[in-house]
Amino acid sequence: xxxxxxxxxxRKVFSVSAFNKGIASWxxxxxTVWVEGEVTELRRxxxxxxxFLTLKDPESGACLGxxxxxxxxxxxxxxxxxxxxxxxxxxxxxxxxxxxxxxxALTIERFGLxxxxxxxxxxxxxxxxxxxxxxxxxxxxxxxxxxxxxxxxNDAAAxxxxxxxxxxxxPPANVLVAETYVQGPRAARxxxxxxxxxxxxxxxxxxxxxxxxxxxxxLPFSDERLxxxxxxSPVPVVSAIGHEQDVCLVDLAAxxxxxxxxxxxxxxxxxxxxxxxxxxxxxxxxxRSTSRICARRAERLSLTRERLARAPLRELERRAARxxxxxTHLRALSPAATVERGYAIVRAEGxxxxxxxxxxxxxxxxxxGGTFGAQSR
Length: 377
Hints:
By secondary structure, the chain is an alpha/beta fold. The protein folds into 3 domains: 6-111, CATH 2.40.50.140; 120-271, Response regulator (Rossmann fold, 3-Layer(aba) Sandwich), CATH 3.40.50.2300; 335-375, no CATH class. The chain has helices at residues 16-27, 70-76, 113-129, 156-169, 187-200, 224-231, 249-253, 261-268, 272-333, 335-340; strands at 6-8, 11-13, 33-43, 50-56, 63-69, 85-95, 100-110, 148-152, 175-179, 205-210, 237-241, 256-257, 345-348, 351-352, 362-367, 370-375. It has a 5-stranded mixed barrel with strand order 3-4-5-7-6. The chain has a 5-stranded parallel sheet with strand order 9-8-10-11-12, sandwiched between helices. A 4-stranded antiparallel sheet has the order 14-13-15-16. It is rod-shaped and about 195 Å long. It starts with 5 loop residues before the first strand and ends with a strand.
């Protein structure tokens, strides 16, 4: 493309439009290239025809604008986030209307940290599907553990924070510390071995503690084998890895996640002052309950004693009444009572006469006033 210029006082002068078009034409002759950088300022709108982002050199801070047709970008399904490292394949372009230089992207691939993020996301999805991160498998922490296991590195800050929080909150606590690798290729296996050794020595809860670090530094705590070891631990596990914003897969698998090592120390033991206050309240409550129970039992015993004291007299009264009734009934049925009513008892030879005896039989007649003799006809 030929760019027209104008002669002005012996000078070859280009208009801004012509100059920009000339540069754009020259850039079109350059080959396509791969450019590496971190994604920043990613901008995408449904109504826009293109997706815009900036590639930043993490060492020098140099920046390069990138444009890509939205359809091509969406087809890659990268779900990029700011800070991810990528390789962009494209051609340099100049938008001549504004004189803005950018790289027109033909494809984008994750690289380095970005590749790690993709692998972690896949592992996270896999383990979540197996139920390793389910809240239903989380176990409660023991209220007053007899022995606490602490797995940490030689990072004095993280170890000191956990121990200080534990001893300040609950001085009688017993802590067994296992120092191991918490960074690098040997870290995941070393932490797993330390956990098994502490469990074998009888700890009732485990704390995994590590200070802050870069994404790469914390990668061992997203190792699949270590995550499975945390889930298979025979005792509850508290994860205190990095800072609050750092989330690794061990955090998701642990029974409790602490935002910092200090918080982990406070989670595994009760506050001694609060525990004493609770015990005092419980003791007072027990004393009050015991007093109320004793008072009720004493009152019940007193009532029982009174009933027992009155029982023999009431029984004698009932029996006397029953005896008087029986006496009255017997008196009403006795021969004497019958005679008193005007009847007589007739005997012949000492036996009661029920049928008329033969004529001339000697009889003894008993009436209310006495006995007299008689003879039958």
